[in-house]
């Protein structure tokens, strides 16, 4: 009774595209047009850097610097990617990084040494994420408003804690992490942390039920609810995740600068959102890519570096970034239409 | 009839999507003043053809002649300028705009070229709604607040707000009640009397017979028959053309004897103020119970409340003796309930995702260990479910957005098939599903019931409820007016009950 009448020609007799070659095919399929075009842009930037400042740009130290700078904002962007994929937004990331970095570097915290700083940064990040998450998921607040409020209050609190002063870190084990002799095979520890966060983020989004639920909530939250997903709890987890990423980023920033300041993380929210969007994450939710976001971050950091090496002003940089965002979105719309 | 060229003549229309040739050299002739029906199975290419006609898709090949002149329809606006209006299968209204704003979207009456004359728009919208037999719809209401049937009327008003020569309707009756359908046919009659041509798509063959003049049948992107007389071609011939086989349009046999097992689902005094009155219901394993009633009689609300998607104002739901937490979908799903909701696009589908992921989303825990998804198992299971419902294309990796309407519906059913629930709540399960697939679907539902599933079915098509269900509850204005075994009822009796309510008592 339920036999197919005329088995569709092409699939008859084929037992699914399993077997060796399939893994290759799916690999190349996954490296889609968008990822390739982002890689192309990055390659072009490296060429530009190499041509305009051959000695300085391709110098190992410079490349290490670029990657280190990318690490801090990169970790934040991975968290942001999840939030945006779920159809939300987190405007408070920069402020959370600031608050976490100053709270973790107060004299009182530094008494507890390395662990105290690390622990405090993470807990402050998670705490802010918790507040965001509860307000949005259970309080029914619009993410834009809730996280905007968090932005204002976290920055305010950071200023209150520091009184506008830079808090110098005196713990040697923390400072040493940023120095050359702790590089592993030439790779700075900060970059290793970034790489780990990226890999974990990729796996979380693409291989776990958590990732599936995130995409489902972003794609159609009503459908997700009716499919039996606890949409509110999922939202809470997502803002917690973003907060945790901010905590990690704050720790990286402490290592990098040897201090905590209330002005840290300024405009990170814009950079992280922009990197995620040019990477291919849909601002309306339902589709996200960690790979794309990381490439977006690398592209932005490389541009900043090239501009700095060529002594161009930061206003020119800002204009170039804006142009790139527009160009990337236009390219994506084009590929989306033809694909 | 007339020596002049047909109003519209499409020939050799070809359109491919990546991996699918949706249309392969299709011809279609439409005369002024006729109702031309377009038939075909799910995925045959009907919607694609009319999207080409509406200027929404560009054909890869083929020519379109309008009153004998070759034309290119570069955009929906170009088609509208010629007088071609389209009512799409998936409603395309803006929920946050008012009825009048939707009707005049894109061609608002203006003063000085840009100031919208809201009053004029509202007045003309009111006139159109009256002409459509729905003066009760307020032009200032937000479209999102209207029922599906009312939204359908608004789309129709939008189509009529232009100076139309040809109206295309893609499954307009799918969301309508019998008397709404009568109203629709009256409108179609008025239009054709004025010389407007109508291209009408539906999976309900009896409708074609009622209003159609000629029929074109599509199969796998080709026109297998063009311009057949709608009234005299035997149904079985049409079905055979569509499906390439003889489908017995029958319902699977009911098992003999009453189900004996203890009820799996018990509903006691469940009510929602303003939606439906306290309801008692027992559902045994192996039993299919149908809810018959008009749109707005509270059928979908009842299903959604049982499922926890709406919070009841009174009463409780028990599954195998365990009382569900009121208003909690999670608790219902965990207890083994599944819902295939009425609005698949808004309530069920993740449009950007593949069929696999749409199917597996409710059963993720089955394919995962410690949160880790076993994608191979997931895909294999999704593929099996897709095969079982003969969903086309049968590749579960394609995005659900590219499926035809009926196949999207099957994807939703596949989700609950895969989950293997104890109680399945089906809300209009065959809306937009073609005849061949319907028979398959009925067979699947009955087989699942024979395996011990309990099914609660809502359908606007009375024959479907009577044919598939064992027991029928007839609802009117949120109240059960009659309960009887399905074999003791017939369509007339149900329609009488639904409209008038129980005569005695
Ligand atoms: N945007 C798209 N991308 C890829 N494939 C598509 C797209 N739109 C339609 N198709 C495919 O084209 C074929 C014809 O689809 P179409 O929507 O025209 O079917 P239909 O006859 O209207 O079916 P139904 O009765 O289910 O509405 C299907 O195989 C469908 O999967
Ligand atoms: Mg269709």
Question: Which helices and strands, and how do they pair?
Answer:
The complex is a heterodimer of chains A (339) and B (505).
Chain A: H1 20-30, H2 33-52, H3 54-57, H4 60-85, H5 93-103, H6 107-110, H7 113-138, H8 143-162, E1 167-168, H9 172-176, H10 189-207, H11 209-219, H12 221-226, H13 231-257, E2 259-260, H14 268-279, H15 290-309, H16 314-338
Antiparallel strand pairs in A: 1-2
Helix pairs in contact in A: 2-15, 4-10, 4-11, 4-13, 4-14, 4-15, 5-7, 5-8, 5-13, 7-8, 7-13, 10-11, 11-13, 14-15, 14-16, 15-16
Chain B: E1 8-17, E2 20-30, E3 35-40, H1 46-53, E4 61-66, E5 69-71, H2 76-82, E6 84-87, H3 99-103, E7 110-111, E8 115-116, H4 118-131, H5 148-160, E9 166-170, H6 178-193, E10 197-201, H7 205-211, E11 214-219, E12 222-229, H8 235-243, E13 265-272, E14 276-283, E15 288-292, H9 299-306, E16 314-319, E17 322-323, H10 329-334, E18 337-340, H11 344-348, H12 355-360, E19 368-369, E20 372-373, H13 375-388, H14 405-419, E21 423-427, H15 435-450, E22 454-458, H16 462-468, E23 471-476, E24 479-485, H17 491-500
Protein architecture, described:
- The complex is a heterodimer of chains A (339) and B (505).
- By secondary structure, chain A is mainly alpha-helical.
- Chain A has a single domain (58-338), classed as Orthogonal Bundle (ABC transporter involved in vitamin B12 uptake, BtuC), CATH 1.10.3470.
- Chain A is 73% helix and 1% strand.
- Chain A contains 16 helices and two strands.
- Chain A has helices at residues 20-30, 33-52, 54-57, 60-85, 93-103, 107-110, 113-138, 143-162, 172-176, 189-207, 209-219, 221-226, 231-257, 268-279, 290-309, 314-338, and strands spanning 167-168, 259-260.
- Chain A has a two-stranded antiparallel ribbon.
- In chain A, α4 (60-85) packs across α11.
- Chain A is globular.
- Chain A starts with 19 loop residues before the first helix and ends with a helix.
- Chain B is an alpha/beta fold.
- Chain B is globular.
- Helix content of chain B is 33%, strand content 25%.
- Mean pLDDT of chain B is 88; it is low at 501-505.
- Chain B folds into three domains: 8-243, P-loop containing nucleotide triphosphate hydrolases (Rossmann fold, 3-Layer(aba) Sandwich), CATH 3.40.50.300; 263-336 and 421-500, Rossmann fold (3-Layer(aba) Sandwich); 347-420, no CATH class.
- In chain B, the strands form six sheets. A six-stranded mixed sheet of chain B has the order 6-9-10-3-11-12, sandwiched between helices. In chain B, strands 18-21-22-15-23-24 form a six-stranded mixed sheet, with helices on both faces.
- Chain A binds chain B through residues 1-2, 4-6, 8, 11, 16, 207-210, 212-213, 215-216, 219-220, 222-230, 282, 286-287, 339, and chain B through 18, 243-245, 252, 307, 309, 329-330, 332-334, 339, 341, 346-353, 357, 360-362, 364-365, 368, 371-373, 375, 379-380, 383, 387-388, 390, 392-395, 415, 436, 440, 443-444, 447.
- The complex binds adenosine-5'-triphosphate and magnesium ion (MG).
- Residues 17, 20, 22, 40, 42-48, 89, 393, 402-407, 432, 434 of chain B line the site of adenosine-5'-triphosphate.
């Amino acid at each position: 009774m339920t036999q197919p009448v005329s088995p569709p020609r092409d699939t008859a007799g084929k037992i699914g595209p399993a077997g060796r070659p399939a893994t290759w095919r799916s690999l190349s399929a996954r490296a889609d047009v968008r990822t390739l075009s982002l890689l192309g842009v990055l390659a072009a930037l490296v060429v530009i850097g190499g041509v305009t400042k051959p000695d300085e740009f391709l110098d190992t130290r410079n490349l290490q610097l670029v990657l280190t700078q990318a690490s801090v904002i990169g970790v934040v962007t991975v968290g942001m990617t999840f939030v945006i994929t779920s159809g939300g937004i987190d405007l408070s990331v920069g402020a959370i990084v600031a608050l976490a970095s100053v709270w973790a570097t107060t004299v009182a915290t530094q008494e507890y040494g390395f662990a105290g700083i690390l622990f405090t940064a993470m807990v402050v990040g998670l705490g802010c994420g918790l507040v965001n998450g509860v307000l949005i998921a259970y309080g029914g607040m619009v993410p834009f408003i809730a996280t905007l409020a968090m932005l204002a209050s976290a920055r305010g609190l950071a200023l209150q804690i520091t009184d506008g002063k830079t808090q110098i870190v005196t713990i040697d084990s923390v400072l040493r992490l940023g120095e050359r002799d702790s590089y592993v095979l030439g790779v700075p520890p900060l970059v290793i942390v970034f790489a780990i966060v990226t890999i974990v983020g990729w796996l979380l989004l693409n291989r776990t039920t958590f990732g599936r639920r995130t995409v489902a909530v972003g794609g159609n939250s009503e459908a997700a609810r009716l499919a039996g997903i606890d949409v509110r709890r999922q939202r809470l987890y997502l803002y917690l995740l973003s907060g945790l990423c901010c905590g990690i980023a704050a720790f990286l920033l402490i290592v990098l600068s040897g201090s905590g300041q209330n002005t840290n993380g300024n405009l990170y929210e814009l950079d992280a959102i922009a990197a995620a969007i040019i990477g291919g994450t849909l601002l309306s939710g339902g589709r996200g890519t960690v790979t794309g976001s990381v490439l977006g971050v690398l592209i932005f950091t490389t541009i900043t570096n090239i501009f700095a090496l060529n002594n161009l002003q930061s206003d020119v940089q800002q204009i170039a970034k804006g142009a790139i965002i527009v160009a990337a979105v236009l390219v994506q719309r084009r590929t989306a239409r033809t694909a | 009839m007339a020596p002049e060229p047909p109003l519209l003549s499409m020939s050799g229309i070809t359109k491919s999507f990546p991996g699918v040739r949706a249309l392969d050299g299709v011809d279609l002739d439409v005369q002024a003043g006729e109702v031309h029906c377009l038939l075909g199975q799910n995925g045959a290419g009907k919607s694609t053809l009319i999207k080409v006609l509406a200027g929404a898709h560009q054909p890869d090949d083929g020519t379109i002649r309008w009153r004998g002149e070759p034309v290119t329809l570069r955009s929906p606006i170009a088609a509208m300028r010629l007088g071609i209006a389209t009512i799409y299968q998936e409603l395309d209204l803006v929920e946050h705009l008012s009825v009048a704003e939707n009707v005049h979207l894109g061609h608002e009456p203006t003063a000085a070229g840009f100031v919208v004359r809201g009053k004029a728009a509202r007045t003309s919208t009111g006139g159109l709604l009256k002409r459509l037999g729905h003066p009760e719809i307020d032009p200032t209401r937000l479209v999102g607040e209207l029922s599906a049937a009312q939204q359908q009327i608004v789309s129709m008003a939008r189509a009529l707000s232009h100076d139309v020569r040809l109206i295309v309707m893609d499954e307009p009756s799918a969301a309508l009640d019998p008397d709404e359908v009568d109203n629709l046919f009256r409108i179609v009659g008025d239009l054709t009397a004025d010389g407007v041509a109508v291209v009408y798509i539906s999976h309900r063959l009896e409708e074609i017979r009622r209003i159609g003049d000629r029929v074109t049948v599509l199969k796998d992107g080709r026109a297998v028959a063009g311009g057949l007389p709608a009234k005299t071609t035997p149904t079985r011939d049409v079905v055979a053309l569509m499906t390439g086989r003889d489908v017995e349009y029958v319902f699977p046999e009911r098992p003999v004897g009453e189900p004996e097992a203890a009820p799996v689902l018990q509903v006691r005094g469940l009510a929602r103020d303003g939606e439906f009155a306290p309801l008692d219901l027992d559902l045994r394993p192996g039993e299919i119970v149908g809810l018959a009633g008009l749109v707005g009689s509270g059928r979908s609300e009842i299903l959604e409340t049982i499922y926890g998607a709406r919070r009841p104002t009174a009463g409780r739901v028990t599954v195998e003796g365990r009382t569900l937490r009121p208003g909690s979908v999670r608790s219902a799903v965990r207890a083994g309930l599944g819902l295939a909701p009425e609005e698949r696009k808004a309530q069920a589908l993740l449009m950007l995702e593949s069929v696999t992921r749409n199917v597996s989303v409710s059963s993720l825990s089955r394919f995962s260990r410690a949160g880790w998804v076993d994608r191979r198992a997931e895909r294999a299971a999704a593929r099996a479910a897709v095969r079982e419902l003969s969903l086309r294309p049968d590749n579960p990796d394609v995005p659900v957005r590219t499926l035809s309407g009926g196949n999207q519906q099957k994807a939703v059913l596949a989700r609950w098939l895969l989950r293997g629930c104890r109680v399945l709540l089906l809300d209009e399960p065959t809306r937009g599903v073609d005849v061949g697939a319907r028979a398959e679907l009925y067979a699947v539902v009955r087989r699942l019931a024979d395996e011990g599933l309990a099914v609660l079915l809502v359908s606007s098509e009375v024959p479907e409820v009577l044919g598939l269900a064992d027991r029928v509850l007839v609802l009117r204005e949120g109240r059960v007016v009659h309960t009887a075994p399905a074999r003791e009822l017939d369509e007339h009796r149900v329609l009488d009950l639904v409209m008038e309510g129980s005569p005695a008592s």
